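// run 5 | inverse folding | seed 20
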């Protein structure tokens, strides 16, 4: 559980230390701007940006029933963030599996990617696609959902 928060916590800590140094150096405006940048970076790298993650097995079962894609991701992944942002509101129509929280999800990703935990890995109709174009993923979503 803590593993997913390490990067955001480090960003907040580094930003705080740098901002404190700038305040003592007499630049409170620069310190505030720098701290804001670090807080924004921590926010986009946190699990809070993504819809609620579920387990790999539950995602597979739900996907089998309704045909929605399953996205395997991990916090701190720039490509996962790009996919999430480009999907916009459609991201709620996808099942998200955090491979740092779900060992079965990590195993599924390694199986699909020759032993590597390359994310995002998107499973559509039982076929894995590593780092697909967000427009392609959006095209696999039903407009009625």
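// decoded
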């Amino acid at each position: 559980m803590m593993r997913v928060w390490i990067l955001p916590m480090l960003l907040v800590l580094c930003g705080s230390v740098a901002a404190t140094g700038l305040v003592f150096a007499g630049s409170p405006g620069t310190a505030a701007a720098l701290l804001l940048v670090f807080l924004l970076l921590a926010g986009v790298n946190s699990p809070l940006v993504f819809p609620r993650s579920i387990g790999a097995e539950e995602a597979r079962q739900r996907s089998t029933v309704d045909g929605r894609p399953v996205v395997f991701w991990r916090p701190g992944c720039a490509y996962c963030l790009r996919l999430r942002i480009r999907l916009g509101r459609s991201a709620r129509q996808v099942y998200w599996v955090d491979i740092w929280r779900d060992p079965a999800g990590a195993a599924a990703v390694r199986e699909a990617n020759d032993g590597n935990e390359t994310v995002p890995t998107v499973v559509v109709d039982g076929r894995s696609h590593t780092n697909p174009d967000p427009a392609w993923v959006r095209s696999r979503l039903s407009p009625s959902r």
